[in-house]
Amino acid sequence: MFEGLRDKLSGAFKILSGKGKISERNVEEAIQVVKNSLLAADVNYKVVKEFVENVKKRALGEEVLKSLTPDQMFIKIIRDELIALLGEKESFKLIHRPSYVMMVGLQGTGKTTSAAKIANYLKRQGKHPILVAADTYRPAAIDQLETLGKKIGVPVVAGDRKNAIKIVEEAMKTVRDSGYDVVILDTAGRLHIDDEMMKELDDIKALVNPDEILLTVDAMAGQDAVNSGKVFNDRLGVTGFVVTKLDGDSRGGVILTIRHITGKPIKFVGVGEKIDDFDEFYPDRMASRILGLGDVLSLIDRVEKELDQEKMEKMGEKFIRAEFTLEDFKEQIKEIKKLGMDKILEALPGAPQIDINTSEKELKRVEAIINSMTPQERNNPDIINASRKKRIAFGSGTTVQDINKLLKSYEEMKKLMKMFKKGKVPFALRGLKF
Amino acid sequence: MGFFDKLKDGLKKSRDSFFNTIGRILKTKKFDKDTRDEIEELLISADVGVEATEYILSRLEEENPEDAFGTLKKILVEILSSNNKLNVPDEKPFVISMVGVNGSGKTTTCGKLAQMFRSEGKQVVIGACDTFRAAAIDQLKIWAERANSTFIAHMEGADAAAVAYDAVNHALSKGKDVVILDTAGRLHNKKHLMDELQKIGRVIQKVIPAAPHEVLLVIDAVTGQNGLQQAKVFKEAVNVTGIVLTKLDGTAKGGIAIAIAKELGIPIKFIGVGESVEDLKPFVPSDFVDALMLGDEVEDA
Fold first, then answer.
1. Is there a contact between B171 and B125 (Cβ–Cβ < 8 Å)?
2. What does the radius of gyration of chain A's CA atoms come to, in whole angstroms?
3. Could you tell me the pLDDT band of residue A121, with boundaries at 50, 70 and 90?
């Protein structure tokens, strides 16, 4: 996500970098690059025009032209303006009990998946959500929600499976005097210009008085996202957006557009096909990400959410006591794989542009090698002699050189651990903050 | 309602419909600086993209036409015209595989295509190769029943290539005319998912070496500039032979198809202009551009 926009914008910054003094022409040139980058990222034409005007006004002022580091000043202006476009963070607000959440949007934007993801998100927070399958148009949409509900252990109301209003009424009956505190309604995808279908949403809204009406928007959407977003908002008064499919390589211009055009915040983003691939939206983090400054905070959130805390703590202790074995090494690789290499790298500022597929392959190879060792070998690698190496290489489909490489890096790690234990942190690492 | 009317109807719904506006501007104006800026904005707003827009504008500049309207139409038709018909092989079955990102409308298009072939009196086999998305198999099964087609499916989570193999094998042994394979939606930047798609191709080639005869990439008309990247990566992976542009009945203009045709030379073969079965239409460049550009004028005539 955003790599394209990031690369293009850095082209603009390069024009200004390394120059002690810059001219108006340099700035104009950089601004033109910014304009084209935003357009190529599907940011709405009108928004781009406004953005460029604002940047121009500030960038041609004294602060950039006289600055000793004009490129840094320019990046700061772009970042400020991006944050202004993205607006303040606004949280998901549930007021009533039970509260109703309506998922609405065009066909194929990811309403059903997002409904299940929100239910899962709420469940993790200790709430008791229930899903309502009110998409009676798309064949098997109800089955889809039921399958997802089963997966996350959240019940799904489907009523007579024919009439959306009746299904919603049935759901209201079900939750009355029950322990469910949030009711998430999945509605059928529809075109904003289909009056009859839009009326169904009016009716459902009037029936349940929802706390949240979330419009799902595809991150790959182009210039027309503004039109549909506006019509849905004008008619229903949406409370926020869920931007889906952000794990693609789209440049996500819609994120920079819809808040500004509708005044409504983005509340969640879908970042993958797994049910946990769903994050709250933080505008400032997103701006940093677009500018290639990384997003370590979201990475920490993910680590906290997805990794087995207990296991990690145990491993940390072992590490300090220098008892870290190859078995532990394997466990750690598993955890990294769970998070996804791509997501880790993307969140790190200035992370090297490495080929994710090859590094994932590398991880797999290491895992295979360790899997081919006996428990004894894993806990005491010193016993691995030439004939054992041959056997391991054969078993894991690798070569003896690969085994040597792995053992060598393990030895180096162990040395480092011993130094930690004795308090002798190597000179090279002393400057680092832990 | 004919295709032309339906398309026009779709466009009419949006008052500031892009090509309509172009029609109006260009009819009265010669191609000059102001018109140029306006056209630029309009093309960009239709998702044609910066590069294709610049190309179209440079063509207009070159010709510097009195009738900018007619010239623009000529250029657009020219970009869109090539190989818009299906490549039907001499020997049956005709194998079509449907690919695309999530939510673009693959399963629905499969159903509509099956119905289209049925109405031509063809025997159709549908293979449910989307074994990933929850209930995708159920959804396709309903479409297969509607289209009175043979439905081949395995369990959810099964190997997609195995389903494809069975579907093609069945069609070959029973002498069926057409096989339509619905694959799971996948983002083109997920390498392992693109590998899976290539595997489907390899496996069916064991039955019919020239298959699939058509690989249709389904693209939502709402798609922005990422559509070009989608087309590029899918083409490299599975040699896409055509585009199906869906959901053109909304307010989105599907201008990305112009960029795709121009940059990659992939033709559009079908467009989707509504929810019902007959709303999948063969793509006719001149009709498409006429309907888009003339808009209100046709109505007056």
1. yes
2. 26
3. very high
**CA nearest to A151 within chain B:** B134
Mutate to test the interface with B, among A224, A231, A275, A343 (most CBs of B within 10 A): A224
Q: Nearest by CB to A191, from B188, B250, B255: name it.
A: B250
Is A225 part of the contact surface with chain B (CB cutoff 8 Å)? Answer: yes
pLDDT tier at A378, thresholds 50, 70, 90: confident
In this structure, what DSSP letter does residue B17 have? -
Q: What's the CA gap between A61 and A56, in Å, rounded?
A: 8
Q: How many CB atoms lie within 10 A of CB B83?
A: 13
Choose the weakest-confidence range: A54-58, A81-85, B65-69. Answer: B65-69
pLDDT one-digit tens code per residue, A146-158? 999 999 999 999 9
For residue B93, the one-letter residue type is: P
Domain range B3-82+293-300, its CATH number among 1.10.8.10, 1.20.120.140, 3.80.10.10, 2.40.50.100: 1.20.120.140
How confident is the model over B130-167, as pLDDT tens digits? 999 888 999 999 999 999 999 999 999 999 999 999 99
Inform me whether the C-beta atom of residue A218 falls under 8 Å from chain B C-beta atoms. yes
Output b/e per residue, A377-415; b: 16+ Cβ within 10 A.
Answer: bbeebeebeeebbebbbeebebeeebbeebbeebeeeee
- Residue B160's pLDDT is what? 95
**Whether the predicted pLDDT of B295 surpasses 70:** no
Give A52's contacts in chain B (Cβ within 8 Å).
none
The whole-angstrom separation of Cα B288 and Cα B254 is 11
Does B44 contact chain A (CB < 8 Å)?
yes
Report yes or no: A302 at the B interface, CB cutoff 8 Å: no
Contact status of A144 with chain B (Cβ, < 8 Å): yes
Give yes or no for A138 touching B (CB within 8 A).
yes
Give the model confidence (pLDDT) of A245-288 as tens digits.
Answer: 988 888 888 999 999 999 999 999 999 889 999 999 988 888 87
Q: Domains of chain B: which residue ranges?
A: 3-82+293-300, 94-283
Domains of chain A are 3-86 (1.20.120.140), 99-291 (3.40.50.300), 306-430 (1.10.260.30)
B94-283 domain in CATH 3.40.50.300? yes
The answer to whether A357 contacts chain B (CB < 8 Å) is: yes
What's the mean pLDDT in B31-47?
Answer: 83
Work out the minimum CA distance from A423 to partner chain B, whole angstroms: 44
Interface subset of B 208-247, CB within 8 angstroms of A = 220-227, 229-230, 247
d(CA A182, CA A37): 41
Contact A39 B229 (CB under 8 A): no
Q: Using one digit for the tens of pLDDT, what is the confidence trace for B189-220?
A: 888 899 999 999 999 999 999 999 999 999 99
